[in-house]
Design brief:
- The chain is mostly beta strands.
- The protein is 5% helix and 35% strand.
- The protein contains 1 helix and 16 strands.
- The strands form 6 sheets. The protein has a 4-stranded antiparallel sheet, with no helix packed on it.
- A hairpin with a 5-residue loop joins strand 11 and strand 12.
- The longest helix has 11 residues.
- The protein starts with 16 loop residues before the first helix and ends with a strand.
Length: 223
């Protein structure tokens, strides 16, 4: 209990939208949102999953990354031009809707970071408009150097995000690897990843079958 406050002391909390968003930004915690789907191994008549299924491990569900994310931006109307500008990070997002505090929706088109409103129906100056957009979560990384995590696993550098300056709170949740086109080592040898796990992938070492010409014995050699 705060110093000087009695058990029944009145407490009045005024929390506007800007303060609420600031509180979330300061104390909020990012989460990983994964989509669940019924695994094909599940028997429809009994709804039982195959305990030996290599895809779900007997859980009956498989989990995949969230392909899209709904994002919002709040914009103050400072003139009657009918042109809004969202934050640069939302430049490539697809516009879903624009509405005001009363819930009224406005006809709008988005081109990059700019949004054009219908000139025949402009909001009053000084009002706030809320812009709802869809952001593609998946990103393409052209090339990355991978760190050996042991046991045949390699971690892709740069997929872990870090939030700093929030009272010692650090966020390091990794992004998911969706697909890998090609894996090579420093000598140009090509490897095939057989498992994707969060920001890591697993590969088996390259092997080659060789026959000793003197003994005619065959052995497997790791390259």
């Amino acid at each position: 209990m705060g110093v000087g406050l009695g058990e029944n002391s009145p407490v009045v909390l005024t929390l506007g939208k800007s303060n609420y968003e600031a509180m979330i930004d300061r104390h909020g915690q990012w989460i990983r949102w994964r989509i669940a789907a019924k695994c094909p191994c599940t028997v429809k008549s009994t709804m039982q999953a195959d305990p030996q299924c290599p895809h779900c491990g007997g859980l009956g569900f498989t989990y995949s990354f969230q392909p899209q994310l709904t994002v919002t931006d709040t914009i103050l109307i400072s003139d009657y031009s009918g042109i809004l500008k969202v934050q640069e990070k939302y430049t490539d997002c697809v516009l879903d809707m624009v509405y005001d505090f009363s819930g009224k929706k406005y006809i709008a088109e988005k081109n990059g970071p700019f949004i054009s409103l219908d000139p025949s129906d402009l909001p009053e100056k000084g009002n706030y408009l809320y812009v709802v957009m869809t952001e593609e979560v998946g990103k393409i990384v052209d090339e990355a150097v991978c760190e050996n995590a042991g046991a045949g696993y390699f971690r892709v550098d740069g997929l872990r995000s870090r939030r700093e300056g929030i009272d010692g709170l650090y966020h390091t949740a990794p992004g998911d690897i969706i697909k890998i086109e090609k894996v090579t080592d420093a000598d140009g040898k090509v490897y095939t990843p057989d498992e994707l796990r969060l920001d890591q992938f697993h590969i088996n070492p390259l092997t080659e079958e060789r026959t000793d010409p003197e003994t005619d014995e065959t052995s497997i050699v790791t390259l």
